[in-house]
Amino acid sequence: MVADVIVETSDTSTLVLFTGNDRLDYKAGHFLTIDPHQFEALDRFTAFLEYLKGKPEPPRAYSMCSAPHERYLAVTVKEERFVPKVTKYPPLLSPLLVKRTVRGMRLVVTGFTGPYTLSPDIASQTDHIVHVCAGSGSVPNLSILKFALAHHPTVRHTFMYSNKTWGDVIYRDTLAQLAASHPDRLKVVHALTREEDAARFGPSVRKGRVDQALLREMIPDPTGCFVYLCGPGISKWDREAAKEQGTQPQPRFIESVLANLQAIGVPNARIKRESYG
Question: Across the 277 residues of the chain, what is the mean pLDDT of every consecutive 10-residue run?
Fold first, then answer.
């Protein structure tokens, strides 16, 4: 049952779910799945898309922003948009979840799974976790961050978060509260690519992308840290479009940051990544 709907930004909401269980068996960074066939309001759209694609609509995966030690389960959903010549089909489920989900609504969710998780012995591998996120890539990283702060007291964190503008930042207040509660263990740095308000910028809010210079500044020991990288990556639609044009797909956030991490000396084996896109 939906216990609460928290509006994070104009196109993103967190759904707080009450399951009736005192404890749920999942790991920080896991995702769950939601099947669009359970929503009567989507029946016509689901049938139409299945007709166009010639196959059933699959369940959609959404990362949990809650951590296993917290009382409620929560997922954060960013509304996908249809962009002509970029997006092949209109998005089906995310607009409903973001804009039309209300308290008391019941959802069937399945599965807690995914490889983008925190190692149980992370404290023996590093004392510094670097989170590099863009957009809704912050969702599983918030879960990992909260769990690690609670259960791995020797590990400190740097949370680098890229968005277009200050209004696009998901978990703005939550991240600020966590940083204030753990001043010696958490540093949050926002990178804004299209923010025009100069008053927004300062030590914790930078103008521009998460580039090699910022990574080098925030990662003093490239071989000793562990990086959790999550954000938009090259999608299968990008690859198909590039193939039709006889070109290579352009790097997105994941590919660009990965190249910069490797350039400053972070070993590939110490980088965990999850692509949204």
Answer: 96 94 86 96 96 96 95 94 83 95 95 94 97 97 98 98 97 97 98 96 96 97 98 83 84 95 97 85
DSSP SS3 for 175: helix
Contact 46, 92 (CB under 8 A): yes
Lateral strand order in the sheet of 2-9: 2-9, 12-17, 73-78
Question: What DSSP character marks residue 202?
Answer: B
Q: Please tell me the distance from the alpha carbon of residue 13 to that of residue 2, in angstroms, as a whole number.
A: 12
Q: Classify 270 as helix, strand or coil.
A: helix
Q: With b meaning 16 or more CB within 10 Å and e meaning fewer, what string describes 110-120?
A: eebebebbbee
Classify burial at 208, counting beta carbons within 10 Å of its beta carbon; exposed 0-12, middle 13-18, buried 19 or more. middle
Residue 45 CB neighbour total at 10 angstroms: 18
Q: What is the largest CA-CA distance in the chain?
A: 55
* Secondary structure (3-state) at 38: helix
Place of tokens 């930004």: 9
Beta-carbon-side half-sphere exposure of residue 220 (alpha carbons within 13 Å): 4
Helix (H, G, I), strand (E, B) or coil at 80: coil
- Which residues have a Cβ under 8 Å from the Cβ of 262 and sit 6 or more positions away? 268
